[in-house]
Queue: 3 jobs
Job 1
Amino acid sequence: MKRNLQNQKTLWDSTMGVAATLVLWPLIVSVPLMLQHTYANIFQSGWYAYQQKPKPLGLCLGLLAVAVGQTFVLCYQYVRWTKSKYAGKLVPVQPNEYRLYDYAEAAQEHLSQPEGFAVIGCYLTCTWMLHLMPSSYYSFEGGVAWSKVAACLLIQDFLQYVMHRAEHKVSKSLYRASHEPHHKFTNPRLFDAFNGSLTDTLLMIVLPLFATKSIVHCNVWTYMAFGTLYANWLCLIHSETHHPWDCVFQACGLGTAADHHVHHKLFSYNYGHLFSYWDRLCGTYRHPQNVRQFRKNHKDPTQWKPHKQKKIFSFNK
């Protein structure tokens, strides 16, 4: 009887995990998926026809895509935070520590971080309306080109890897002025993704974004899909619990919460965010299974406390 109940629980957890994976990721890109072939029936052509002058519709839809994706990510996180049976089995990335927080307070802090959505939103608005984007980005013709979405994600993450490692290694003063505030979270939660500094956002997100748009030329739907995947994936890798898709992502070299927790815990490994390819090529990858702090020590978990900034920096690697 007990074994049957356990088997039913395992089956339920697996089913909920598969359902969450199949539902959440398409919802993150739901705006470009729904509008890429129907926009002409909804909007007047004068609102999007490109005539050497940027129209705000593409920008507004892009910001909407990120906002909608973020809404679904926050709903997903809420279900997990409440430990609902529909969340499936929740396994903490760092089982020897725990973090208690109020969901509403944490979500409000996350969304109000000026160095997060506000700065990136200003960058997107300025580059779009000042016509700093390649002309292809203003085109509504064609749907999402997934190969170019992948190219954008790969290039963005590679450049972010370079900037991330530079912030750690170029000089102590650069690190303290940029990335150190984010590293007080040695056991991060999803809401800590954009909690850092203005300098950190400019160096590690905005500059790579500016370079990526100059390398990959795509239409508005592809740019939209890339933007919402990138922004929301950054949040998901900061999760305090494993995601149901992590085993598949890990096998494919895609970024997981555990991979990123390694960086927050050890500081000198796993500089990549969305992919582990650059760390593996450069010898800076550490598998979560090889991190002692991520293995259950059979003691009662202790409450996590943020590290003092002056104790974080390391030149060991």
Note: DSSP finds 13 helices and two strands in the chain.
Job 2
Amino acid sequence: MSGSNEPEKHLSKRPGYSRRYHFSCCVFLFRSLLNSQKWLSRNFDKILPEKFRLDGHRDYQERIVPNYLQENLVIYDVGGGKRPYLKFSEKNRIKATVVGIDINEEELNKAPEGAYDKLICQDIACFRGDNDGDILICQALLEHVNDVDAAFASFSSILKPGGLALIFVPSRNALYARLNMLLPQSIKKAILLLLYPQTEKKHGFHGYYHKCTPDELKALACAYNFSVIAEFYYYNSMYFSFFFPFYLVWRLGLLAFYSVAKEQAAETFVLVLKKETRQPILQNCEQGNRKAGYSQ
């Protein structure tokens, strides 16, 4: 029996073994605690109305965008980088021509082979198109753009009259967005890596959130000859699920915010915009501008 314990005794005497063992135990306990808090947060959400449980990004990807896809379209994927919206098989199935626009050439080059028919490495705020696009897909990009007005001018130049811009936006009004704007980039990345290591490759771009509220973007869309043909609002995100007491307080605060601000309390939202041949009715633009705090 004593001989069978020799390997364990030998390992325990190796330099650093004890420290590594205790570190592994601490990591395991920390991850277990995090998972328990996330489990509590998910289960608390089950008692809320469905509109407060809906995942906006998933709804955008799985329901909203597919609803507008047809065959033989020219699709601009703005900011898709190495993760284009359309998979190669789906792109071929609907015979789409996909143009990828991203400020980061390395990101574009990491996209799956054949995902894009054309690559354009340029800041969307500086790009001007040929008015040949049928669909523009823009998901979780505008919060990282410093000049959103210029980005909308670009959108208008990309799309042909009647073309659609399908835009998913994290709202500036969300608590996580406010924290994102306040914290230094290095600290934000460290916190996200610690609490959500599976999202390491999805974060790292600075967040400005300029005009990223429903009223401001709708007013801006009107100014650039777009009409809003559909809008969707979502009141769910999991940023604070790592600590259930904080998550509970945030959830109750969001419900209170919604009771007075309605869609302005959304964590994320989607706008489906149609490029018009002329500017939408002036009265509608003025109403949108007043809500957004603009003056003519």
Note: Residues 17-45 form the longest helix (29 residues).
Job 3
Amino acid sequence: MAQNQRKKNQKTTSSVRDSGNLKVIMYIVLVVVGIAGAVSLGSAGGSSKPATNSGVTVPGGVAPAEFQKVTVAGDALPQLPDTGKDPAVGKAAPTLTGYDLFGRPVTIDPGSDGKATMVVFLAHWCPHCNREVPVLNEWKAQNQVPANIRVIGVTTASRPDQANWPPSKWIVAMKWPFDQFADSEKQDAAAAYGVGGYPFLTFIDAKGNVTSRASGEIPSADITKAANTAAGVK
């Protein structure tokens, strides 16, 4: 009789163990199914965020790149001569549509918002640009920028075999404080504005017409004077 009781107890213990193992197995199956369902939902487009491998960070943006596609609307400006009057003064500045170095959409459309515009073309390898950017940084820090002017820097003539490549890291290291726009590898933006050297500054009034241009290292006092003229500040 004692032997029969031991057999009965063994069967009961085995039954409890089997029941516990079954619960564990069922739990694992449910977890796996749940994970699979979550993965399936994510891959089916349930999220409105861009794919992480695309590098796109904003709606309408593109992947970050050192060169970006540029669309030009309007007539290109003539090149700035070494001496004499600037033939671009009084002409309408072309509109540039593209992206910054980090893939965000950017448009340079002088006169469209009722503000003056100052476009600064910069090359990461240019020693004059590397000296002029701190001047512009200080110009802003000293509150010399007119209230109704938009300042935007255009990285152009970028070259991987030159100093300070890539421009995306250079512009951050230089602490550029304004908007920025990435030129194409063919330098479409620079060609549209008649750029012949670096840095190259173009000042445009609120109607979208060029008021002045300058190339090389420009003192902050001259920048202020040109910016105020474009902005109509007396």
Note: The beta strands are 71-73, 95-99, 105-108, 116-122, 149-155, 179-182, 200-204, 210-215.
